[in-house]
């Protein structure tokens, strides 16, 4: 029964991620269609000017004639390029997403994203070349003073358009690494680490699980720093935890070796990921007061949590965390210091044992859903000893 619920939860999460990808595909199809339509209009106006204007019949400087012919050629070439690329992308991209094999939706969306820059650049080149062609046309067909007035208007309008578009861009721009997310199957393969540790010491005893049906992992998508948990890990037996702490400093009940701090860091880097995502970390005292906040990318593996400045740092080298040792969450109490549905969404971790001299930790999530996912995962992690 538990296994069936776990699989149903994973399937539901996959369907939600697929729906997000489908919405992203629809966005790029609509954007490319808009670019293609506008580029075709520019090409039509350029062709109409080219066929309707007899430049040879006007007595004008050869410089303006050259500017006219060159700008006309560039405008036509860039417009046709934009129309062709948008048409092909809108035909073959959705075709791959709908009819391709498993994982084709992710491949199709990434292909649309890869073509975005080339389409935008070709459209801007066509627009600028069309503006230069219009400027050259005024000097071909008009008298000196009329051409001067039109030149001032065209240049002034171009500067105004640039500033206005730049203002709109800055109003809606965002930092992509904070919101970008990847398909879970591809993400798992990319995040797999190859860290290993060879030791002549006896092997440690395997973990005792209360129920094997709880095996799984927590994955996150990083759109705006979003975190998605897919399943729960097993919890270590409280009896094993008690016997472990009751033995000597370097020995367990079965006589096996307790890993050192360096060994634990290597094991944490190689362990499977249970939860990952962006949070803001605040320096917190036992009473929960904050000093300042720093946005970090956190990766939870078992009861140990690693922090990185960016997700790319984790993907490049999982052992290259900000702190030399992972944060051991065993023995911490998980407290939500935020009112329901009211930001900021904060999570406080403080030791349960009053004699535990470890510091408290405070984290701030972007959304209420992220906070609930992290709290659920932290609640399991604080009961695990490795």
Low-confidence stretches: 177-254
Lateral strand order in the biggest sheet: 4-3-2-1-7-6-5
Largest sheet: 7 strands, antiparallel
Helix content: 40-55%
Structural class: alpha+beta
Report the end-to-end length measured between terminal Cα atoms.
27 Å
> What proportion strand?
5-15%
What does this structure look like?
- The protein has 386 residues and is of the alpha+beta class.
- It is 52% helix and 12% strand.
- It has helices at residues 2-52, 62-99, 104-141, 144-172, 184-190, 238-246, 261-270, 311-316, 368-381, and strands at 275-284, 290-301, 304-308, 327-328, 332-336, 345-351, 360-365.
- Strands 4-3-2-1-7-6-5 form a 7-stranded antiparallel β-sheet.
- A hairpin with a 2-residue loop joins strand 2 (290-301) and strand 3.
- The longest helix has 51 residues, at 2-52.
In short, what is this structure?
The protein is of the alpha+beta class and 386 residues long. The chain is built from 9 helices and 7 strands; from the N terminus they run αααααααβββαββββα.
Topology:
Blueprint: H1 2-52, H2 62-99, H3 104-141, H4 144-172, H5 184-190, H6 238-246, H7 261-270, E1 275-284, E2 290-301, E3 304-308, H8 311-316, E4 327-328, E5 332-336, E6 345-351, E7 360-365, H9 368-381
Antiparallel strand pairs: 1-2, 1-7, 2-3, 3-4, 5-6, 6-7
């Amino acid at each position: 029964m538990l296994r069936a619920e776990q699989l149903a939860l994973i399937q539901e999460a996959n369907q939600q991620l697929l729906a997000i990808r489908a919405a992203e595909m629809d966005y790029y199809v609509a954007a490319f269609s808009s670019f293609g339509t506008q580029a075709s209009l520019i090409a039509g106006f350029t062709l109409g000017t080219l066929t309707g204007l007899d430049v040879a019949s006007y007595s004008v400087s050869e410089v303006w004639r050259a500017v006219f012919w060159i700008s006309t050629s560039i405008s036509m070439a860039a417009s046709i390029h934009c129309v062709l690329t948008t048409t092909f992308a809108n035909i073959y991209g959705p075709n791959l997403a709908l009819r391709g094999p498993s994982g084709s939706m992710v491949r199709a969306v990434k292909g649309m994203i890869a073509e975005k820059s080339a389409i935008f650049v070709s459209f801007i080149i066509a627009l600028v070349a069309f503006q230069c062609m219009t400027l050259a046309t005024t000097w071909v067909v008009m008298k000196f003073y009329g051409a001067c007035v039109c030149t001032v208007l065209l240049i002034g309008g171009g500067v105004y358009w640039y500033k206005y578009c730049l203002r709109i861009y800055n109003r809606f721009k965002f930092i992509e690494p904070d919101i970008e997310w990847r398909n879970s199957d591809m993400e798992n393969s990319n995040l797999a680490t190859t860290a290993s540790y060879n030791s002549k010491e006896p092997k440690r005893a395997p973990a005792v699980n209360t129920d094997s049906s709880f095996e799984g992992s927590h994955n996150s998508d990083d759109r705006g720093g979003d975190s998605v948990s897919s399943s729960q890990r097993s919890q270590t037996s409280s009896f094993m935890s008690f016997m472990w702490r009751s033995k000597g400093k370097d020995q367990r009940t079965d006589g096996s070796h307790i890993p050192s701090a360096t060994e634990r860091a290597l094991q944490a880097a190689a362990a499977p990921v249970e939860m990952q995502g962006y949070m803001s970390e605040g320096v917190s005292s036992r009473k929960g007061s904050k000093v300042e906040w720093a946005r970090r990318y956190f990766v939870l593996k078992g009861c140990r949590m690693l922090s990185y400045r960016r997700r790319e740092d984790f993907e490049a080298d999982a052992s290259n965390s900000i702190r030399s040792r992972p944060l051991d969450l065993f023995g911490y109490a998980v407290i939500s210091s935020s009112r329901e549905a009211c930001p900021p969404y904060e999570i406080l971790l403080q030791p349960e044992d009053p004699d535990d001299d470890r510091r408290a930790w405070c984290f701030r999530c972007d959304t209420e859903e992220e906070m609930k996912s992290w709290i659920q995962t932290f609640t399991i992690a604080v009961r695990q000893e490795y």
